[in-house]
Write a structure and sequence with these properties.
Elements lengths: L43 E6 L4 E8 L17 H18 L7 E11 L12 E13 L5 E12 L2 E13 L1 H8 L22 H4 L9 E3 L5 E4 L18 H17 L2 H4 L3 E12 L10 E7 L5 E8 L2 E15 L10
Length: about 350
């Protein structure tokens, strides 16, 4: 495969063993196709169908981002993989597989693995990312399309660096309302700003730069943390919703993992920096807005780098995530300064 760019400021190396594809990185796709309201949050720039159930998607990762910013060792945020995968799923569904705009998507599971962390290093220009995807439809007992799974491989500037998948249900407003037990609605009043308070874990402990991006709150039990849900957050709540979005859950799990791994006894004093290398999340139920969500550590490996975390709302399990973290360098001294 040769990927031809019409943007002279970036280059993309050919990927061997595939057909000839032409992908553009000039401008983002229509925001409705990736379920984003803000144009600035659209990473997908183009796509091309490569077979009956395969397609490729081009995306551009910014050199910096308010939430998904590089880490202290200059590596792109691994959650860019998850967000780009999410956008590629919606783009493929609407563009190539006949799913109407306005359909409701219900996430079931998502995973990604970074096989070459060095490929995520931020360069002198925004990263040119290509996802090669395989689409597998799932049907109900009557043979109707009920959902689909997307499996992808990632390349960054022509360098293979990982793989991932996401799977979800696709329903209309009527069926969505039945699943939710209430009329379907896309609108909702934004709740008062959730200002970080004394319980909020500071940015330096969870790998963030701003207090407003910190989603962990202290709980009275040592292995449990509350999930702070700020419906006024411009990235995590890009548009109104009637439940806690999947990316909010992922951000909570990531911050929980960062805190746990870096403060594990054998890592806390070693001066080493760890990055999220793999994550697998299974969704069990909708997270309701306005009700407390608790994140709890279920399992931790002896080296402190592999963990299993559950999210619960009361007695209800919302999701469970397995994470693996890998050492990527050394930690910068904590200065205790952060933006709001």
């Amino acid at each position: 495969m040769s990927v031809v760019l019409d943007d002279p400021r970036t280059t993309q190396a050919p990927s061997p063993g595939a057909g000839n594809e032409v992908l553009s990185f000039l401008q983002p796709v229509t925001r409705e196709l990736v379920h984003r309201t803000a144009v600035a949050e659209v990473f997908v720039t183009d796509g091309v169908r490569t077979g009956a159930n395969t397609f490729s998607v081009a995306a551009q990762w910014p050199r910096d981002h308010a939430l998904y910013h590089p880490d202290e060792n200059g590596l792109n945020d691994p959650l860019l993989c998850a967000e780009t995968l999410r956008q590629a799923y919606f783009f493929g569904a609407h563009t190539y597989f006949g799913v109407p705009l306005g359909s409701r998507f219900i996430g079931q599971d998502v995973s990604f693995e970074i096989t070459d962390p060095a490929a995520l290093r931020v360069g002198a220009v925004p990263a040119a990312v290509v996802l090669h995807g395989t689409w597998t439809e799932e049907h109900d007992r009557r043979g109707r399309r009920a959902g689909a799974r997307l499996d992808v491989t990632f390349t960054v500037d022509g360098r293979p660096c990982g793989r991932g998948h996401t799977r979800g249900l696709m329903v209309d407003d009527r069926r969505y309302g039945l699943l939710r037990g209430r009329p379907a609605t896309a609108e909702g009043a934004v709740s008062p700003r959730s200002v970080p308070d004394a319980r909020t874990v500071g940015p330096g402990r969870v790998g963030r730069l701003r207090w407003k991006d910190c989603v962990l709150q202290r709980d009275r039990f040592g292995r449990r943390w509350g999930l702070r849900v700020d419906r006024d957050h411009a990235v995590l709540f890009d548009h109104p919703t009637d439940h806690v979005p999947l990316m909010v859950m992922l951000e909570g799990f990531r911050q929980f993992g960062h805190l746990t791994v870096h403060e594990a006894p054998r890592n806390a004093d070693a001066g080493r920096a760890f990055a999220l290398a793999a994550l697998s999340l299974d969704c069990a139920a909708f997270g309701e807005l306005g009700e407390e969500i608790v994140l709890e550590l279920d399992e931790l490996s002896p080296d402190g780098c592999t963990l299993l975390v559950a999210a619960r709302q009361g007695e209800k399990l919302l999701a469970r995530a397995g994470m693996t973290w890998t050492c990527v360098g050394s930690r910068a001294p904590r200065l205790g300064l952060a933006s709001w």
